[in-house]
Amino acid sequence: MNKIFKRNELWLFCILALLAFLVGGSNSSFWSRTNLFSLFKSSVVMGVFALGVLLVIVSGGIDISFPAVAVFSFYITVKYLLYIKFTGSIVMPFVMSMTIGIILGLLNAFLISTFKLIPLIVTLGTGSAVTGFLRAFVGTTTLSNLPQPLIDFSRWNIYTETLADGSVIGFSGSFLIFVALALLVAFILRVTTMGRGVYALGGDQIAAVRAGFPVRKIYYFTYGMAGALAGIAGIIHCSLIRLANPRDLEGIELEVIAAVVLGGASLTGGKGTVLGTILGVFLIVLIKGSLILVGIPTDWQKVTIGVVLITATALTAYRSATHGGR
Amino acid sequence: MPNRIVCLADIEKSFGGVKVLNKVSLSVKEGEICCLAGENGCGKSTLIKIISGVYAQDSGQIALNDRSYSRLKPIDSIREGIQVIYQDFSLFPNLTVAENLSLSDQVESRRAFVSLTNMRRIARESLAMIGIEMDTDKTVEELPVSGKQLVAIARAVYCNARLIIMDEPTTTLTQKEIESLFALIRHLKEKGISTLFVSHKIREMLDITEKITIMRNGRVVASGDTGAFDEVSITQAMTGRDIGGERFHWGGSLDEEPLLRTEKLSKKGAFSGIDLSLRRGEMVGITGLLGSGRTELALALFGSAPSDEGKIFRNGVEVSIRSIQDAMKNGIAYVPEDRLTEGLFLDQSIERNLFANTYKKFETFVGMLNFKKIRVTASEAMSNYGIVSPDIAMPVRSLSGGNQQRVVLARWMSTGAQVLILNGPTVGVDVGSKFDIHKKLREIANSGVGILIFSDDIQELIINCNRILVVHKGRFTNELDSEFLKEHDLVECLNANR
Amino acid sequence: MAQGLGKIIKSENNIFQLAVITICTFALMCWLLPGTFLTMRNFRSMSFQFPELGILSLAMMLAMLTGGIDLSLVGIANLASILGAFVFVKLMPANSSHEVVVAYIVGVVALALFVGMSCGLLNGFLISKLNVPPILATLGTMQFYTGIAIVLTKGAAVIGLPTQYSVIGNGSLGVFSIPLIIFIVLLIFFAILLRKTNFGINLYLIGSNAKAAIFSGIKVNKNLMISYMIGGCLAGLAGLIMSSRTNAAKADYGTSYILQSILVAVLGGVKPTGGSGKAIGILIAVLALQFLSSGFSMLRFSNFAKEFVWGVFLLAIMIVNYFTNERNKT
């Protein structure tokens, strides 16, 4: 099975490369540093979300509440920091947003593991409740005067260069955070007992109980971690666009789930890798970011993502039906 | 005197006011191979769950390795070396053999990180303990059933098992695999590891065990050395009545035009050149090892996995059977092997289960169903097949295994089928119901229906079929008249094919 | 007689429980809002509001009966209403006579049903023939259908629909609003279809155990395709009522209906794992939701507060169902 995964990832990589050459061939500005840097930057938020969704899908569940969790986390964080006129370290907003995310993730885990409810419907419910709560009781106005540390963070580049026309472009430092989190999740999934427990739970829940896995703890870990990642993705997003908009990120769940499924994770659980997920994220970001370059109006974005998801899932399902045998 | 690994005394347990276990006592000594026998629902699975600490007893004493426990927890049971191998093996299909073998140890030892070398070492060691070699980097879903069972046993042994409880271990194994399993159990005995064999296959318990405990209705009704039992006494103890083994006799003649005939029926990778004929009132048994192509043949005759070559004739007329609907149109019915996953709609009413594929017959104008007629037909079918339930609106889940199987049988017979294909008709059915189902099948055959029984249960075939065909590597190798056939002849026939 | 009634109450336990909840909600709102809730005006306005959600919930129930889910329903509704609106705006000559307009309306209804059916066909094809999990398939098609709607409209609302068209969503026959009549007719149709016909019972059987259905000779793929196609038609119809009621069609109307239709279905006793649920449950559940929604509006709850309540409500019902199931087990 590992071999198939590797093949799947290889395929993804080939498609990604092919697509890059096609787009680059039709519009050479694709290969400009400006464009490449911006593609990497826009893969950060989706990528961090995708890591959380990967964990949940490997455990055999699904989470569609993460955009709501992210918005809830960053909006409350920003609102509070503005209220206390925060000027300290960037660590504080991250920790706060992450903590709120963890709490909401644990709530999902509680509902799913205690009452044995269907993850889709639970996260649909918590997503709606969280969004509604935020807009009804916390605020609906977009905050555009972010605290200074967040603005500084958005300007953090690990590499800058001045172009011929005098403008400065940079490679966003936030990408490092994505890489670090990806390594962390890969490490957890591959070599920790908890990570193998997530695979075991997704493979066969009853067997996991019998093998002595602390199944409830695994649920809390998985959804808590997904919440934490959503909180981090949220605060990065809000910093990068320098706005805290309570109506933000609607509809991103589809793109993220598409990326994870494209990356080889199976909704029945137990399968999926971080590398595949990252490639899936790059693919979605590349498609989204290149539509304009090849002359397709942005209106087509939704249709394109829809078609990609439908084709990818149909191909996966078809392949497992013909190869799976039994 | 060898140490007693398990000693239960006067265990009682009730669920919602129903006494499931009534003063049950059981003991297993070191290195002993014991059998816990009984019909479905006699309380043996509850007893296992008490030994493994999943359920707490209401009263009675539990002692493991001479340490007594008032409230046994699963973790205590595992520490005392009790390992249960469930029918589904409790393995992780998506993980490798090595991981499956090492994960329990990993969790138990509370290590936070997994080491690949450590994992491989554990896998190698545990497989060596039962004297087996296999590729530990394969995922478990790639293994055959017997391979999965070996992994489960190796895992149990590695977890310092002193007693391995095997729940119906032979159900999905072929004859050859059963023999190697028994060899393994004897090998474990030499190492001082005991086995508690939970089964209702009488022949197997006589073969392998040293001590038998038989339960009925939550009580131990007989217990003692295996030598003191024979098939008759075990059956009697299990069912509480005598069950005759009178053989089926077919009165028809082979010159008659067959109901169903195949000519050189073939399917790539499954079977080839199958010539089969079935006449009115015949009961023909088809057996063969797992993987011999017999299940594929059954599915091809029923159209769910059609053949690629050859002809099928019904009453002498060539027919094309490319789908289940084609088979139904031609009066062919199929009772699947696993009634829980393939046969029944557990949450739906008995009525819906009875008429799942015949509702069309009750359509009146604009497709509305005539429920008055449905109710009448349902109660007829229930009395005809001896299905006992107060109300046809009850979910079929509420019925016993035997009644459930009768529902599936009734469903298919109500389609007016002339050819009935049964795949493992009494797998997981207790001895009493088994007898009733056989009786019903003979009645059906006597009414002129031709019956094909695909089964592993040699005794079942010999008693109920007038002819038995043996499949090997996709071909019929022997045709045996079962009138005077002895069990060991058939077993030899099967073994000759290895 | 009394025994018979007791038996009915017992066998229809969930429906009975639900009816009690609905009546309590109703009483609560009457008490909280004396003089405004229990008025003809409120009832009339409610009778225009809930049928579209009711129709979408029927479609959701169809998908959930077979163990699936249809997240693309609102996408289908909007696509159908936009294509219909385009017919009026782009094809129908201005200043057409009354007869011509009516003919166009008939054409638009047929078009909406056809669009709905085709979208449902794609869903059904992905789910039954290609074995794509329903969540993924309909999540993808939701994006796809909404995407087409955005491409067609550039995200703007299509307005300028003929006045005659608005009769579908705003007219009434006697005291009954036309949307309500459409909903009730559909409800009766589905109650009969599901309980009294071979097709309906097949859906329950498929939802209960798809493998056993195949082995029983039920044409599972065909039935699944038809059920998603019918669901699509219902969504198309709901889209028409929405665009007629608001006199405009837009790609992102009614996105909250997805959650609400799942809420209505689950509240109405449809099991998300398949195999059980009744049309009457949908009626009572959608009424309960409408009472709450109207009451909240009168109590000046914001839409966001409602969104919050719906989410909590959905979770609460699932938890209550969990406890009832646990109790029934022992």
Quick rundown:
By secondary structure, chain A is mainly alpha-helical. Chain A is built from 13 helices and two strands.
Descriptive account of the structure:
The complex is a heterotrimer of chains A (326), B (498) and C (330). Chain A has 326 residues and is mostly helical. Chain A has one domain: ABC transporter involved in vitamin B12 uptake, BtuC. Chain A has 13 helices and two strands. Chain A has helices at residues 2-26, 33-58, 66-83, 91-115, 119-138, 148-155, 174-191, 193-203, 205-210, 215-241, 252-262, 274-290, 301-324; strands at 157-162, 168-172. A two-stranded antiparallel ribbon of chain A has the order 1-2. In chain A, helix 2 (33-58) packs parallel to helix 7 (174-191). The longest helix of chain A is centred in the last third of the chain and has 27 residues, at 215-241. Chain A is globular. In chain A, 51% of the residues are buried. Chain B is 35% helix and 25% strand. Chain B is of the alpha/beta class. In chain B, the strands form four sheets. Chain B has a six-stranded mixed sheet with strand order 6-7-8-3-9-10, with helices on both faces. Chain C has 330 residues and is mainly α. Chain C has one domain (49-279). In chain C, helix 2 (13-32) runs parallel beside helix 13 and helix 5 runs antiparallel to helix 6 (134-153). Classes of the chains: A mainly alpha (326), B alpha/beta (498), C mainly alpha (330). Chains in contact: A-B, A-C, B-C. Chains A and C meet through helix 5, helix 11 and helix 13 of A and helix 6, helix 12 and helix 14 of C.
Main sheet: strands, sense, barrel of chain A: 2 strands, antiparallel
Helix vs. strand class of chain C: mainly alpha
User: In DSSP terms, counting alpha (H) and pi (I) runs of 4 or more, how many helices of chain A?
Assistant: 13
| String of helices and strands of chain C | HHHHHHHEEHHHHHHH
- Rg of chain C, rounded, reads 20 Å
Query: Which residue ranges of chain C are poorly predicted, with pLDDT under 50 across at least 5 consecutive positions?
Result: none
In total, the number of domains of chain A comes to 1
Net shape of chain A: globular
Can you count the beta strands of chain A?
2
CATH topology grouping of chain A: ABC transporter involved in vitamin B12 uptake, BtuC
Strand order in space, largest sheet of chain C: 1-2
Mean pLDDT of chain C: 91
**Beta fraction of chain C:** under 5%
Q: Identify the biggest protein-protein contact and residues per side.
A: A-C, 48 and 45 residues
CATH class of chain A: Mainly Alpha
Report the count of strand segments of chain C: 2
Radius of gyration of chain A: 20 Å
Helix count from the secondary structure assignment of chain C? 14
Helix- and strand-based class of chain A? mainly alpha
What spatial order of strands do you see in the largest sheet of chain A? 1-2
